[in-house]
């Protein structure tokens, strides 16, 4: 598939985000993802709320919480919810079997909790995110700082190469006060097994591999929408 320029990619993100928002019903508790595509869905939800849609939301990051409040959406504490009716989030990569890599924006842990609680977890993407096998995008691994070196070495034991994520030359710190190691495992034959191996390492909060957590992926390609479920 030909590479998208920024305008085409934005148009695809917007089309997917608008399609996902149509699934939101009055009275729903809505999980709000993080990233540029999720932001477009939040903006649209904000418009609908102004027009009278009655929803409450849970945010997957501090920046999403601020954005939702800016758009007049009532936000509940994610940690107090035992279920979410519908969530809308982006992804860095996905396969037709609905396995994902997420966490490019660093919000993987809260996003994973949100997806786990969601009865209907919708992922919205442009066409650049669909892959045959996960792994061209590195796997974000959220790590308790104290365990950084140990986890880094364990990732090597699993056949990966880790890089500590930086932002503006400083170590990137997640909303939970942790580090992220971006781990390159090449193309991943068994994402479920890798996810479970990573999650078993002491000091790992979670990996950015999302397995069995997604209800549907809405992907926009040019003027077409494709739904994988
Ligand atoms: O997982 C994420 C943030 O942690 C994002 O959903 C993912 O990085 C995709 O972002 P975008 O919609 O900007 O391409």
UniProtKB/TrEMBL annotation:
Keyword Coiled coil included in the entry's annotation: no
Domain of life according to the entry: Bacteria
Signal sequence, renumbered to the chain: none
Gene Ontology BP terms: D-ribose metabolic process; pentose-phosphate shunt, non-oxidative branch
Entry's EC annotation: 5.3.1.6
Catalytic residues in the record: 111
NCBIfam families associated with the record: PRK00702.1 (NF001924), rpiA (TIGR00021)
Function text: Catalyzes the reversible conversion of ribose-5-phosphate to ribulose 5-phosphate.
Protein name: Ribose-5-phosphate isomerase A
Lineage: Bacteria, Pseudomonadati, Bacteroidota, Sphingobacteriia, Sphingobacteriales
